[in-house]
Amino acid sequence: MHIVDGALANEVVIGGAALAAGGIALGLRHLPLEKIPAAGVLSASFFVASLIHVPIGPSSVHLIMNGLAGLILGWAAFPALFVGLLLQAVFFGFGGLTVLGVNTVNIALPAVIVYYVCRRGVTRGSPLTAAIWAGFGGALAIALTTALVGLSLMLSGDAFIPAAKLVFFAHIPVMVIEGLLSAAAIYLAAQVKPDLFDAMKGAPS
Amino acid sequence: MGHILTLERQTLSDTGAGHGGALARLDPRARILGACAFAMVTVVCSWMPVLVAALLMAVGLMWLSRVPVAPTLRRMAAMDSFIIFLLALLPFSVPGDTIFTLWGFAASWQGLALAVEILLTANAVVLALLSLVGTMEPVTLGHALSRLRVPDTLVHLLMFTIRYIDVLRAEYLRLRQAMKMRGFRPSTNWHSYRSFGYLVGMMLVRAIERSERVLGAMKCRGFAGRIPLLETLAYGRSDALFAAGLGAALLALFAAEIAHAAV
Question: TM spans, by residue (chain A) (predicted)?
Answer without folding.
Answer: 12-30, 36-56, 68-91, 97-118, 130-154, 166-190
